[in-house]
Amino acid sequence: MRYFLVPFYLKSNYVQVEFVGGPVCWNTRIFSASAGSPSSIFQVERSLLDSGFDYEHDDPGATNIEPFKEFTDVSRGVRMLGAAAVDMCHVALGIVEAYWEYRLKPWEWLLIVEEAGGVVTCMDGAKFCVFDRSVLVSNGVLHAKVNLSAAVISIIQEKKIVEMQVCHRVLELVLLERIAPATENLKSKQINLSLWYKPENCRTEL
Ligand SMILES: O=P([O-])([O-])O[C@@H]1[C@@H](O)[C@H](O)[C@@H](O)[C@H](O)[C@@H]1O
């Protein structure tokens, strides 16, 4: 999909992304971080998710079929909108719960997700920088197990708390626990997920 992004950085939590020059249906779409927030849904089975596949159709694409199928089976669906920027705006505004994809370009990453309160990492869980070749963005609560301590987990399991059965399933289905191993597997096969061209002296750490 062809589009131009016009990000406005006005003040904290007020990032806007405007789509101009694309197909007619996108011309008038403006997303603002202050217009909504990531959803608070924490159950994968109640989530709508997004992903995508790059043009190269090689190992990362083949690998992404695994989480794509798995989450299609257990969630309310995995959509492919074909435009990473739109996918990320949809996470920021709570239209979908999460989005992941390999091999995006640096200009496709949007600050709007973090400004709106979402979470962004690489698909192996590593800290994300714009030149990384994999990205997982989510509403935060679906991202990883880190939200619940080991102590809490053991109490849930030990006491077999009925109301927590759903929660227990959530623990098994958080996104990163499924997506990170597939990504580690790719890396162990020496598939190139290294940084996209990063200009010399370009600082990405603040
Ligand atoms: O082609 P383009 O619009 O620059 O970028 C596209 C991404 O926005 C999309 O998420 C992905 O699935 C496509 O393969 C392609 O990378």
UniProtKB/TrEMBL annotation:
It comes from Rosa chinensis (China rose). SUPFAM superfamilies: Carbohydrate phosphatase. Its EC number is 3.1.3.25. Keywords: Hydrolase. This is Putative inositol-phosphate phosphatase. GO terms for molecular function: inositol monophosphate 1-phosphatase activity. One of its GO terms (biological process) is signal transduction. InterPro entries: Inositol_monophosphatase-like. Belongs to the inositol monophosphatase superfamily.
